[in-house]
């Protein structure tokens, strides 16, 4: 039992969930390593949502609302940490949800789909086809899902597929705590924030944004500024770490 007054309560709860779902076959061992890498960068931004990230989250909501066919791509870590938040965002953004995995097996897809559906997510199903310009299994996707999307939200993504989706002309929204990663730099819009903090902010903005403000955000954002803002925050914290 993790005491709620522990200073790192949220992080420890997330770690326990990841470990639990690794045992159940939803998360891979490689996913555990990826989670730890993200935690390290979360330390560097102070384990909080920065002003730059909050603006990126509002912009992500605007992009989803203005999209014709928005899709949320979900992997094992995302399902383990935030199935409930995916369900809420799907409803607010009117988005489709597709399970897409690097370490792919039909059994893992079934497990992740079941976890999402128990949280109220409507998951796209069907026969995956090799439709993306990649040599590994993340090239597999559903024709009515990611392949047909104009805007794709890709939490906890790998850089190869992010680049491939962008090369196909799609708007790609990434959630990545590492502002230096290939994913963060390749995405159309990068939210440098922890997943379970970021998704509620995006969902809330989907409800509160007016059409006029959503259109303004879609036409005026510059992803380089979001990445620069995250790096400046990290630099500031490192500079004053021992003050």
**Taking all residues together, what is the mean pLDDT?**
94
Helix count from the secondary structure assignment: 10
Q: What characteristic shape results from the CA principal axes?
A: globular
Coarse structural class = alpha/beta
Provide the number of structural domains.
1
Uncertain segments: none
Tell me what you see in this structure.
The chain has 243 residues and is α/β, with parallel strands linked by helices. It has a single domain (51-239), classed as Rossmann fold, CATH 3.40.50. The chain is 55% helix and 11% strand. The protein is built from 10 helices and 7 strands. It has a 5-stranded parallel β-sheet with strand order 2-1-5-6-7, sandwiched between helices. Helix 3 packs across helix 8 (195-208), helix 3 packs antiparallel against helix 10 (223-239) and helix 4 (76-93) packs across helix 5. The longest helix has 18 residues, at 76-93. The radius of gyration is 17 Å and the shape is globular. The chain starts with 8 loop residues before the first helix and ends with a helix. The model has no long low-confidence stretch (mean pLDDT 94).
Brief summary of the model shown:
With 243 residues, the protein is α/β, with parallel strands linked by helices.
